[in-house]
Amino acid sequence: MTPVAARPCCVGQGRVHGDFARVDNRAVPKSPPLLPVLALIFNALVWGASWWPFRQLEAHGLHPLWATAFVFLLAVVVIGVVRPLAFVQVATMPTLWILMLAAGCTNAAFNWGVVIGDVVRVVLLFYLMPLWTALLARLILHEALTQSAGIRVVCALAGAAIVLWPEGRGLSMDALPMPHALPDWLGLAGGFSFSLNNVMLRREAARPEEGRALAMFLGGALVSATLASVLSLKGLAPWPPALSGAWAAIALVLAGLFIFSNLSLQFGAARLPANVTSVVMLSEVVFASASAIALGAGQMTAPLAMGGGLIIGAALLAASGSSHS
Which distant-in-sequence residues (6+ apart) come within 8 Å of 314 by Cβ? Predict the structure, then answer.
């Protein structure tokens, strides 16, 4: 779910996005273009349809935050077995803690939002990343706000205003395009966190790849578990149910899909220009919207389609702009 220079790997989306090896486009190995594109499409498909297994886990009594914590903990265990030194890197590099927090907030917000809200709406609000990325890149990376970046920001803001405009309120002065429900806030928070995740990946590109990858998976587990614990202690969310083969099997399969989709993303992103990767990854919106509408978890209204078109247009502009950066 992202336009980035050093391609992030999600949990977007997504949303654990991160590359194990940065690849200079001038040194991209020759490979049939179809396979890298298919690898990226598979990653987008997994994340675009991930709302469904998370909803199945909720049906078994596992809150989406607890489900996220459990799934990402399994991924952390796998990385720890394959790259045990990654834990030392995360523990001794405080800048990776910011990346861990950003990735954790991304996954917690996105997975929670698509379970309790309209999937199409949450995904589109999540994709306001061109807006947040332009502002965060200016603040953290000291990148200039170019004219093209300004156009992307205006385009994204216009799309967000249309998506968030209160239904049936017309153009009255008291109708403000503000989030009016928790899923809206989660979609926006997830997109902002994901943009921070991407900016930090660029800032920490020289850090060891396995450390960055572990930081993002670990963040997904820790942030989700912390938020879930707070909600459960306050009686706002159920504690995890007793371990059962039904929900444990879903969680295991989901964890395996996330890890494999992450590897697919790395394979594809390493063999395609960054702007091509960003455009292909936008297919996640299509997969999420189509699956949600087909299964009754979302609806496509005229304002949503119009606002979504502007938001996706901003992302496409960001993707095309990355080819010149």
Answer: 128, 130, 131, 152, 153, 155, 156, 159
